[in-house]
Write a structure and sequence with these properties.
It contains two helices and six strands; from the N terminus they run βαββαβββ. It is of the alpha+beta class.
Amino acid sequence: MCALFDPPEPRRVSPGEYPVWDQALALLNRDLAVTLPQLEPLQLLALPSHDADEPENVYVAMANGEWHGNCLDPNSQDSLASALASVANAAQDTVMELLWQAWPLCPEHGLGMHPREDAQEQLSWWCAGERLLRGPAHIHTAVGALDALGESIRTRS
């Protein structure tokens, strides 16, 4: 039985329901598997909107259903680049808040990286590490490509 003011239960989003977000999440889960191999893949969870005329709210959650942060921007489904930016930010919020650690870490500086569009308009993990030494920040690698870095990325986690 559900009381009048009980919050709605989140539901796991089925594969293919939001195909562009599925693609973006698959890229993020590649990075998660390389940097935090003990974790199960992230998933999409949905909750009904408070307004019946609005679309449901979709979140990036841990495998156990916990999440933190804002829902994905419904307009980010227009392109993979936009979806990847929205999903990367949401995934990072969830992982960092629930694990209480920066993610992902730059293997050179041990600092948390952030998603940022590079000169080729590709979403990449960006590190501010050299700024500590008054040098430039640097693009580390494309979001979803941390597996190309090999063992060095795993030794920091």
